[in-house]
Amino acid sequence: MGIGQAMPEIDLTRSYLIAKKSFPEFLEALQRLGYQTIGPTIRDSAIVFAPLERVEQLPIGWWDDQRGGSYRLEKAPTEAWFEFVVGPHSLKNYTFPPRQTVLRGERQADGRWQFEQPLPATPPLAILGVRACDLAALAIQDRVFLGSEYRDESYALRRQQLFLIAVNCQRSAPTCFCHSMNCGPEVTTGFDLALTELDNQFVVQIGSSRGAEVLATIEPQPASSELEERARQRVVHLANRMANHATLYQLSDQPGEATAARQTQRHLNTEGIRDLLYDNLHHSRWDEVAQRCLSCGNCTMVCPTCFCSTVEDIPSLDESEVARERTWASCFTSDHSFISSGAVRQSTRSRYRQWLTHKLGGWIDQFGTSGCVGCGRCITWCPVGIDLTEEVAALRDPASKREG
Amino acid sequence: MSPTDCPAATTSTNLWMPLEMLIVDTISEIRDVFTLVLSTPTDFAFRPGQFNMLYVPGFGESAISISSDADRPQQICHTIRAVGNVTRELQKFGSGERLLLRGPFGTAWPVDFDGGQDIVIACGGLGLAPLRPMVYHLMNRREQFGTVRLLYGARTPADLLYREEYPTWEQAGIEVRVTVDQADPNWRGPIGFVTQLMRQFPWRPQHTAVLACGPEVMMRYVALEALGQQVDRHKIFLSMERNMNCAAGLCGHCQFGPSFVCKDGPVYTYGQLEPFLHIEDL
């Protein structure tokens, strides 16, 4: 767009179209505006967020078969761009990185230490392919890191730099239960732009003025009301199917398609869940789940809201410099609860109980929201397929109750 | 929260930036226990029961309660048991050296009592250290309180902390009763638990507050004994210990039930703790 040319008018209340064949221009526009573009790509047989230079890096035509303890990528029977759901990465990899330096110190000639609190210098990120559950998780982490007395400034800085291009899911994995947590599947808030995929194009909703500015640079055509309605129907169709969780889950809706996985859609009854957990801290179910749980901490690593961390000193060999590094921590380790008299939570039983009661109960007291968005990552990435929806159902079932 | 209404980042919060304080004295207390006396910056203030994160570069931090008089914040004391990597390093520090720390953090002992309250301080072992600021607080305004009793239990007479101060406290009108688990030939006092000392005086339960710090099992029994004496559960205060890493409720290590001990504690009422205090490994 040349100097002096007026920016095309963008109506924030309308939807627009981006043709798939024009998507490279959209990515280029973001890059020209200074954004590093991030998106879903295939690495080590999983779909993860990574720098996305070109459209060809997207997992076009792939989808994921997710079950308790299992994740497999397969060729989808369509050439759809976003037919897969969430992988092991979430936005927390960008807002709350697995390792970062929170303080750096240097010993001066007189033996005294001088410190600086380094703030991250990262380019603005445009992240493509964010789902409704990811946005819900981000809103929860905002409360954790920015909502209390102490604000995490590095989180705030990274958070501000995100430009979020969400995608409405049109398919769920059997491990998904965002509908139970009121976190999806429809993208409703917290995005800059939201895409709904149709055959050859995307219907684009605008979520922020920044989103409108970015969209204006590619001079998009408004979507006809007929296309808007078609996009709408795609989203509603999945929402209805998930809500009707008694139906069998199928990999594809296409008639005659092989249905590789026939499983019931996960569902979590959240009614009175905080009290349910706190009233059942002695339940025998904790002993049963401890027989299966490996205490590996995978669930806490893939969870998009888990925020535990440990700051440790990394000194230079001559001890003249020190970095205080914050890394992700997990409540499944014995270090996590270590005090002078030893680890408070010695058993796997107590650690799983801590994780689940915190995630679904304690979070409500601490941050006014559940810590779960129903993304199902902890179910898929648990090596033994422990399923929190099943554990909560067992705690609810009077027949399973035996005081432990 | 949408990206656009995300609050602007500022650099005003320096959570990890340590303060530097001069060590003006070191005191050897009981076996493996020592006190560092620090000269504080002019704007430093704390409330009885709060703690600091003491930092040794290259080793890390340790959460240590402040054990001195909050009415005299110009100098503060930290009484420390050399038991881990950081605390053993701290033991090597001497007068004239500089110590790094962050703080103060956490909730405080209650100080806004109605007039004439009886106060029972029940503590065990090093649990006296976070309560010593409360002893000084009461001494500094002794006329505002009814009977003030300090009930203290230690393993042996050699493990009694701040022993040389007890006569001063008694002269200031604080009844000090001490018990040990195991006596030595010179011991003339009682042998047994702190809870036994709680049965040896008349209670005015409507007008009494109980402040306890020590091993968790000891605090549980102190609380049950106080409840047995009809003290209100919201006037029984306990100081909890959990793993502190950030001290700001961001790292998750110190969780106890739905709370963060670093910011919602360490001082809680028994009423707050009751649903969780008697559950194993929480």
Explain the overall architecture:
The complex is a heterodimer of chains A (404) and B (282). By secondary structure, chain A is of the alpha+beta class. Chain A contains twelve helices and 18 strands. In chain A, a hairpin with a 2-residue loop joins β4 (62-67) and β5 (70-75). The N and C termini of chain A lie far apart (70 Å). With 282 residues, chain B is an alpha/beta fold. Chain B is 16% helix and 30% strand. Chain B contains six helices and 14 strands. Chain B has helices at 85-90, 132-140, 166-171, 194-197, 216-228, 270-277; strands at residues 19-28, 33-39, 51-56, 60-65, 75-81, 98-105, 117-124, 145-154, 175-180, 208-213, 236-239, 255-256, 259-260, 267-269. In chain B, α5 (216-228) links the parallel β10 (208-213) and β11. The two termini of chain B are 32 Å apart. At the A-B interface, β6, α3, α4, β9 and β15 of A face β13 of B.
Overview in brief:
With 404 residues, chain A is an alpha+beta fold. Chain A contains 12 helices and 18 strands.
Structural class of chain A comes to: alpha+beta
Radius of gyration of chain B over all CA atoms, rounded: 19 Å
Q: List low-pLDDT spans of chain B.
A: 1-12
What does the overall shape of chain B look like? globular
Cross-sheet strand order for the largest sheet of chain B: 4-3-6-1-2-5
Listing every helix as H and every strand as E from the N terminus to the C terminus, the arrangement of chain B reads EEEEEHEEHEHEHEHEEEEH
Q: Tell me how many strands of chain A there are.
A: 18
Shape of chain A: globular
Pairing-aware structural class of the strands and helices of chain B? alpha/beta
Terminal CA distance of chain A reads 70 Å
